[in-house]
Write a structure and sequence with these properties.
By secondary structure, the protein is α+β, with helices and mostly antiparallel strands. 47% of the residues lie in helices and 15% in strands.
């Protein structure tokens, strides 16, 4: 889940990261990751509590600190 969010925000690409991801449903994210909407909800809430993401009226704001989750795996 963290990897997908970082990819969608262009972290690790040559271009400048775009931390705001357009509004996308949890069902769509679940299909992209290959899991259930329930698991996506669990991780999104976890990332929100830990301060890695913020919900904005137009989408999800991804903080660069989310990289630490991927590196920790």
């Amino acid at each position: 889940m963290a990897r997908l969010l970082l990819l969608m925000a262009n972290f690790g690409q040559e271009s400048k990261p775009i931390p705001l991801i357009a509004r996308v449903s949890q069902e769509t994210l679940a299909e992209m990751v290959g899991t259930t909407r329930l698991r996506v909800s669990f991780f999104m809430n976890r990332f929100l509590e830990m301060g890695f993401i913020e919900y904005n009226g137009g989408g999800v704001n991804v903080h660069s600190s989310l990289v630490s989750v991927v590196l920790y795996e």
